[in-house]
Amino acid sequence: MKVAYTNALLLLACFSYAQQKEIDSIKQVLRSQEPLEQVKSLNELSWYYKNFDVDSSTILAKKALAIGKELSSPEAISMSLNSVASAFQAKGSFDSALLYHNESYAIKKDIGDSLGMAASKNNMGIAYDEKGDYATALENYFESLRIYEQKTDDPFDIAMVLGNIGIVYKKQKEYNKVLEYYSRALEIYKEQGSQFGQMVTQGNISSVMLLTGDYNDAISYASEALEGYKTLGYSRYVPYMQHNLAIAYDSLGQVEKASDLFLSSIEGHLESDNKYELASSLVGLSSNHRKRRNYRAGVSRAREALSVASEIGAKEFISRAKFELSLNLAHAGDHKSAYEHLLSYGFLKDSLFEEAKTKQIFELQTQYDTEKKEQQIALQEAQLSKNEAELQLNRTLLIAAALTLILGLSLALLNRNRIRKKQKIALQQERLNTQEATINATISSQEKERARYARDLHDGFGQMISILNMNLKNLEGSPKPQERQAVFDESEKIINEMYDELKSICFDLMPQTLVRNGLTDALNEFASRVNAADRIHIETNFFGLDDRLVAVQEISLYRIAQEWINNIIKYSDASKITFQITRDDSEINLIIEDDGMGFDKGLLTKSAGNGWRNIQARAKLVKGEVELDTTPGQKGNTLIVTNTPEIAVEKHENTVEMV
Predict the structure, then answer these.
(1) Do residues 542 and 636 share a domain?
(2) Sequence-separated (6 or more) residues with CB below 8 Å from residue 144
(3) N- to C-terminal Cα separation, the chain
(4) Could you tell me if residue 3 is inside a domain?
(5) pLDDT tens digit string along 388-429?
(6) Is the pTM of this model over 0.70?
(7) Are residues 34 and 75 located together in one domain of the fold?
(8) Cα distance between residue 520 and residue 542, in whole Å
């Protein structure tokens, strides 16, 4: 029995907002990027489209590959080759996928990219697994696992490969081994707090429950995973769980319900052009028709499955399709054709599960386990040697303790080490100071340019509009007054609109209220503009701000509030925002609260946008710390920015050239 599963989902890392918003964000910045950055964005878009539009995914990946070749960048080329391979793999073209994966692996090996090599080995393992070449699949998986265990700092890489190894053992009916690897992966996801990783692994466990006959448990696990995929918007993987549910209900005798689920699964795999899983669902529906005595329909579905499986070279489904075809033909009365397909099925089954191949698979497992034990023994021996050396050193030190000269040398050595450590710390501090100075200079330059643009636009362009308006009005008494009056009225209307737009631009670049009146008036003005749109309401509160802050604090706190509130308006379902600033002798606190839905704050740092990085840079500029309180699935989010004492007690210097 074939059970649907998910191979490469565990690499996902996406922003907390909707998938389409992330795609739109990438497209928006794509045209203005440098070629190398375009390669990264195109590959990221290809990864997103792979889940629901494989043809677009292929086109985007090949476009990235062409740019990488123009740049002669091995990193860009290998990255793009992997994306092209993944797109072919998503629609069941495994030979083409392996061709591109091997090219990508060769480049990564040449440039010494160990983690990239591990990723390629894992991807090749997936392709060989789906082709039915389980021994080669395991060989690639174990090689990937060896590299990750030695090189990676990301436990998700290890969990991903463990899950894929479990999938191969599932096909060999070694269910204890399957649960062993799935459990190891699940433990990692729980330790890392990854809800998505737990969801996918539990979905895979449901497939094992089907194979062991625990159908009710399988329904529970698969239903939970199905709802999770729908919630996260991964429509490509919804049919996988529909297939699992169909098998469970079919096995429990609820054949009509199973039939509907098989049809839904087939429809979903057709939409995503997933021929591999399509073949599996067609075989399942053929079996379902046979149980309901719709033998002709069963023959038709089995032939469809055989055609799709033969097209992609999936031996497992070719074998199973022939078996179902023979059974349905026999019940339909065509015993000769049934016998011929049954003979063909037996031959394929023997070639898939022959003893030598199964032995080779378990030899790979033994080899991996042996290497792990040898590594552990080597580490233990090294530790014993280290302990023995330390004991010998202690004895030597005890003997030499009475010698003044040795004591003096030891003290000199310690003093030298302390000096080196101080020098190292001083060097690190100097580097940090240099980085901070660079950040300060960059932000200062940007804000001064904004202030200058705002002043020039307001003083120059505004005066020109006023003069033009007066000139138009002076012509009202000229001949044909009615016609001219109509022109003047329309011109005056356009000029007024231009002036309003100009004031809005000036406010965005550098609010004059902030320059002249300070932070509280500027934030109140910003809140009034938002409230005027009548979409979301902002309430402001200020405590201890009778005196103005220093310029760098005012502009930094204003930009942080502006950035975060704009993000809430764009992406959140919040209806109310409350922000307050409190100041005392020791610190300044900015607190922004909203009633929108919580999200996984760990994904903010992986976002392609600059909003979160800008907030962090602004806070660092005033030696502040940023804290975000949010819980996925619960309403209410809070952003807190706290200034350190040394910056909070400085006095304001009122100047137009604000940093």
Answers:
(1) yes
(2) 118, 119, 121, 122, 125, 161
(3) 67
(4) no
(5) 666 677 667 777 666 777 767 777 777 787 888 888 887 778
(6) no
(7) yes
(8) 7
